[in-house]
Amino acid sequence: MGKPLSWFGIIRLGLVQTALGAIIVLTTSTMNRVMVVELALPAMLPGALVTWHYALQTLRPRWGYGSDVGGSRTPWIIGGMAVLGLGGIGASLATAWMSTNVTAGVLLAVIAFTLIGVGVGAAGTSLLVLLAKRVAEPRRAPAATIVWIMMIAGFAVTAGVAGSLLDPFSPERLVAVTSGLAVAAFLLAVVAVWGVEGKAPPAPATAPEAKPPFRVALAEVWAEPEARRFTVFLFMSMLAYSAQDLILEPFAGAVFGMTPGESTKLSGIQHSGVLAGLIAVALAGSALCRGRLGSMRHWVVGGCLVSAAALASLVAAGVVGPGWPLRASVFVLGAANGAFAGAAIASMMGLAGRGHAAREGVRMGLWGASQALAFGLGGFVGTVAVDIVRYVVGDPVVAYTGVFATEALLFVVSAGLATQIHGLDQPVARDRVRTGEESFAAGTGRG
Q: Which InterPro entries does the record cross-reference, listed alphabetically (predicted)?
């Protein structure tokens, strides 16, 4: 498999995440807006399509199993990116078709978003497994931050480039811009990942026994206490993380009277906080700090508890009103979210190789499915809960603060779950940086 990844190798794999994010942002953001604004279609249509793409992520364990059996992750990454690119192009064609034939366009959109869900799951799962197996332990926290930031960069750069190319808007221009960006993203991913993994090791003599049917492999992973606890933790924490995504800006408008421009800036403050939290985890996990800032457990638990406190402050903001320092609360929420998420991703890399051998893909797929399911449910449940409470009570403040309070409780529960995951006790950085075979053993969870 080769020696542990250098920083350049980690950045190369981060470029794959950038390419993946570039296609995703076009389909979940740009086309969402086109359907609702330019085509005047119900908002529930793109919402249902995005939810469907998340629902397909429950198949991630199966795709991870496929890469485990094959022993090589690169074909799954490239193949997944190809399917994702086709799905993105298909989604643009479907959106354009809706302007003349809504029924046919919607049917094509369902097929396209199916391809998007499959492509994201196949490429994303194998990419994370490759990182987990090839990144030495002292570099996991910084690597997690690099990959996450590069995905966000893919969102930002693509949004800016596509935004300038789409004006003046027309359905034909949407298809042309999406097709060009999808092809560019695919080529970037291929160049970035090519040769990084190296040749797959020869199959061991016990290969038939090491490659049981998928259901057996999944049952073996689920039977592992650490893997099972981490799956539940990810679901609970990511449910809390995502539930405020679609209601924070409406809350700022309804309770604080912010304009759309002001609430958009508030969202920017939150994302700045997320970036700050990610960078803090990366620094804590660097050789410079040498483990003096605690274990992954401290960062995960602390991030969850501070997230709960920040959400409690939003509840207080709803009660106090415009006099509350809302921007400060939102920044702290973002920073705490970033810290716990970065530490969770780094922990995922370390835990992927623990337990039954040759199950890294199934393990990572199980965790990816848990996250995706939580994200899909979180945004939907958060908005539905606000609508129901507003309808019953008639007070938007009670509706929004009720959801924030529930999220805070979920984060507290998540912190409690994290204390039960013994694999999080490893320091974020060792007192010395290991090299050669010792580092590779750490990167794969063996040795």
A: MFS_trans_sf, PucC, PucC-rel
